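The instructor's notes for this session suggest beginning with a concrete chain rather than abstract definitions. Hand out the sequence below and ask the class to guess, before any prediction is shown, which regions might be ordered.
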Amino acid sequence: MQTIKSHQDFERVFTQGKRLNHPLIRMVICDCVSEGDPARVAFAAAKRLGNAVVRNRSKRVLREAARSCELPIEGHEIILFATSRTRTASPEEMRLALLALLRRAHVVHNN
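After discussion, reveal the predicted structure:
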C-alpha cells in the first residue's frame, strides 16, 4: 500500500479533494494529478483525539479497514481521518463505514 508522505501532496489532496463524513471515519478523496501517478492513501489522527497511544491505535484501525477494502483505488488519492469513535469500532463496522464512504464518492459500487 503506497502512502502519501510529503506535506505538499497531503495539502493538495486536502484542498482539492471531496470531503465525505461518517461517524467512524472522515475521508478526503482526490483524483491523481496525472494518469501515471500511483494511487495512494494517508491516515491521520488529530491530537484532540488523545495521547499518542490513542492516535496510533486509531490509525491502525484505519489501516486495517483500508486493507480490507483493498485501498488504494487506482486513479485516486485518499486521506482517512480518525474520529473519536474510530478506535472503539469493530473491524467489520470500520469496513462497512469505509465502503459506504467509497460508494458515496462513486468510487466503488457493490462489495
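Then share the key points. Residues 29 and 78 are 5 Å apart (CA to CA). The helical segments are 7-16, 52-68, 91-104.
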